[in-house]
C-alpha cells in the first residue's frame, strides 16, 4: 500500500513516535487485517478533513474498522495520553515548559454524521495550548 497518499498521512518519523504509544494487538483472536499505521492515517483523515466516517476513501481501511479502533482507543484514554506525550515532546523541543499556563478552546466544530448520531449528528471540538498544540478532542452531540 502506498504511503503519503493524503496530506494527513503520517510521515515515517511521525509514525516512529506514535507506534510505541499504541496498544499492541490482542493475542488469541484473529490476526489484525489492517496495519495500525493505516488505521491511524484513516483516523487522521477524518479528523483533518471533517468528513463522516462513512465517507472514508476506499483505499483506507473500512470505516467500520477505523471507527471501532477510534472508539476503543478513545474509551481507554489512549488518544488523550498520546496527545499529552506528543505535546510535551514538542513543547520541550521548542524550549517551553511541559505544561501550558493557559489553554485556548477551538470552537470550530467539525460535523460527524456517524451512524446512530441522529439527524443533527455530532461535533468535534478541540482544546489547544497557547502554542497551538492539541490537548483534548471532544465529540459531542450537535444541538439544533
Automatic annotation (TrEMBL):
Record's compositionally biased regions (Basic and acidic residues): 99-111
InterPro entries: IS402-like_dom
Domain of life: Bacteria
Region ranges (Disordered): 99-119
Residue ranges occupied by any Insertion element IS402-like domain in the UniProt entry: 10-82
Any Pfam family hit: DUF4096
PANTHER family reported for this sequence: PHP DOMAIN PROTEIN, TRANSPOSASE
NCBIfam families (alphabetical): transpos_IS5_3
Protein name: Transposase
Amino acid at each position: 500500500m502506498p504511503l503519503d497518499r493524503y496530506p494527513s498521512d503520517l510521515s515515517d518519523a511521525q509514525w516512529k513516535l506514535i507506534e510505541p504509544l499504541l496498544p499492541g494487538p490482542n493475542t488469541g483472536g484473529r490476526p489484525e487485517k489492517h496495519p495500525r499505521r493505516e488505521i491511524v492515517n484513516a483516523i487522521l483523515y477524518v479528523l483533518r478533513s471533517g468528513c463522516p466516517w462513512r465517507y472514508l476513501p476506499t483505499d483506507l481501511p473500512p470505516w467500520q474498522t477505523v471507527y471501532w479502533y477510534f472508539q476503543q482507543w478513545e474509551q481507554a484514554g489512549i488518544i488523550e495520553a498520546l496527545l499529552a506525550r506528543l505535546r510535551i515532546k514538542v513543547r520541550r523541543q521548542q524550549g517551553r515548559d511541559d505544561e501550558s499556563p493557559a489553554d485556548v478552546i477551538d470552537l470550530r466544530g467539525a460535523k460527524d454524521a456517524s451512524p446512530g448520531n441522529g439527524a443533527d449528528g455530532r461535533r468535534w471540538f478541540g482544546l489547544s495550548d497557547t502554542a497551538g498544540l492539541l490537548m483534548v478532542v471532544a465529540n459531542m452531540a450537535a444541538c439544533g
